[in-house]
Amino acid sequence: MSDLSLHHSLQVINEACKGCTHCMKRCPTGAIRISKGKAVISADLCIDCGQCMAVCPNHAIRIEQDPLSQLQRFTYRVGIVPAPFFAQFPDTLTVTQVLAALYDIGFTHIYLAETGIDILDVLEAEEKEKPLPLISNFCPAVQRLIQIRYPLLVGNLSRLRSPAQVTAIFAKSELAAFGESLGIFYFTPCAAKIAQFKTEGSEEHRLFDGIINFDTAYNQVSVLLAREKERYASKQAGFTFPHCTRKALRWSLVKGQSSNQKGRALAVDEMHNVIEFLDILEDEQETSLQFLELDACAEGCVGGILTVRNRFLATEQLRHWSTNLPKELPQDLTERILAQKHSFENNLCLDAPQPKQVLGLDKDRSKALQKLEKVDRILAVLPGIDCGLCGCPSCLALAQDVAKSQASLRQCVVLKLKDPKELNSLARIWGERPTTAGGQMDDQA
Questions:
Q1: Residue 112's closest CA among 382, 292, 368, 322?
Q2: In what order do the strands lie in the sheet containing 134-135?
Q3: What is the pLDDT of residue 66?
Q4: Residues 296-313, mean pLDDT to the nearest whole number
Q5: SS3 category, 35
Q6: Which residue has the higher pLDDT, 404 or 241?
Q7: Distance between CA 123 and CA 135 in Å, rounded?
Q8: Average pLDDT, stretch 201-206?
């Protein structure tokens, strides 16, 4: 995904947006500005973490939704379903019932996304070169964050395929006889994975034929289970889970990855905690850690923006289920994996990700230095209270936008109230025409 034009799944609903600045203040990459009373998301800076949607009090930010009717394009329909999806349902419903409903919706095959963890173990896959600390690439929002905000750490990102990718390759190989009539669909708990999937040329775009949001699938399954209670009641008995080990089922939870690593490992969840830690890591280059598990969502994937159930209840549910699973794969599944080993030859690692040069003031180094000096001078006159009334998340962001000719110093409400004449003088310094008493540009100046 290094040189690809990234797709974005988050969209602002202008009719509902009131320009309240909640999203702008929350965005971890400073990708949002308020312009003409509406939020505007920068495509270059957005990492699709969904933080803006989570804090919007007006429900003015939405995520792309693909309809389940997309299944009808294929005769054979494979669902690659992460374990947290099953934990969205109340304890009164069993995994067996949810699986039955998924088949009734139209899927012909269901594979657990976490089976990819066990496949990697069976194939003894590991990275040849391990920069320390190795940073998991499991969370696409964190990977994009590092590419944009922490370019020095990009080389530490893991290159192993994600479990869902590995499972998709396995399913395609096992069901290769169905040819073009086979469709692979991934269930996503978050916006970042939608963006990752829909980026043309990405591995996800190549491997999957469609993507289904957790909430969309949850609603469909819930309706079916409620409408035909008696028929599904007969499927309550017993514990049945798609094939995987105890370790794999816990993989998407906090510490699910780090607890299974050799050496010293650390797990950090929730985007602002991740940023706090990455700031430290970038400054100190701490090397005593061998592995870092970084999750944008609190509690891991169970806290994704598209999940329905309380993340703590979902976490407990998965941990409880995992106690009923074996530590080792059954022999028949191990043999199935080994039978498809040829599909994974030289195919388990991705190209090294590259940093995104979008935060700089200018691509030309000399111009960037000039603009940096300009930013410092502008900051010296700004109030430094980060009120956000100018439409930028901070005074620094406004200064940078002014230096890049993307904003005006006149946007600062505090300076306007303090002394309009002084503001005109300052604006003239930065090459802007002063305004008249009516707020219009003075062409005679």
A1: 322
A2: 134-135, 291-295, 265-269
A3: 86
A4: 97
A5: strand
A6: 404
A7: 21
A8: 78
Token representation of residue 144: 């994009």
Q: How far apart are the first and last CA of the chain?
A: 49
- Alpha carbon dihedral 16, 17, 22, 26, in 10-degree steps, equals 100
Q: Please say if the pLDDT value at position 439 is more than 50.
A: no
Q: Quick one: average pLDDT of 166-174?
A: 96
Determine what percent of the chain falls in helix, strand and coil, rounding each to the nearest 5: 45, 10, 45
Query: Would you say residue 224 has pLDDT above 50?
Result: yes
Residues 6+ away with beta carbon under 8 Å from 38: 12, 14, 17, 19
Confirm if 208 and 184 have CB atoms less than 8 A apart: yes
* pLDDT at position 391 over 90: yes
Provide the percentage of residues in the chain whose pLDDT is more than 90: 70
Provide the CB-side half-sphere exposure for 158 (13 A, CA).
Answer: 22
The 10 Å Cβ neighbour count of residue 322 is 19
Helix (H, G, I), strand (E, B), or coil: what is residue 207? helix
Amino acid residing at 293: E
With a CB cutoff of 8 Å and minimum separation 6, the contacts of 248 are 112, 114, 115, 116, 117, 118, 163
Q: 303 vs 150, 263, 312, 314, 424, CA distance in Å?
A: 24, 27, 8, 9, 48
pTM here is 0.88
13 is written with which tokens? 């609903």
pLDDT of residue 242: 66
pLDDT bucket at 240, cuts 50 / 70 / 90: low
Q: Who wins on pLDDT, 235 or 254? A: 254
Domains along the chain with CATH numbers: 10-63 (3.30.70.20), 65-125+160-250+301-355 (3.40.50), 131-158+254-298 (3.40.950.10), 365-429 (1.10.15.40)
Secondary structure letter of residue 261 according to DSSP: S
Residue carrying the six token digits 């089976």: 115
- Torsion 17-22-25-30 (CA) sign: negative
What tokens does 210 get?
């469609």
Quick one: pLDDT band at residue 59, thresholds 50, 70, 90? very high
φ, ψ for residue 235, nearest 5 deg: -100, 15
CA dist., res. 280 & res. 286, Å (int): 8
User: Which three-class secondary structure state does DSSP give residue 176?
Assistant: helix
pLDDT band at 31 (very low <50, low <70, confident <90, very high): very high
Structural contact between residues 207 and 184, judged by C-beta atoms closer than 8 angstroms: yes
Cβ 77 vs Cβ 183: under 8 Å: yes
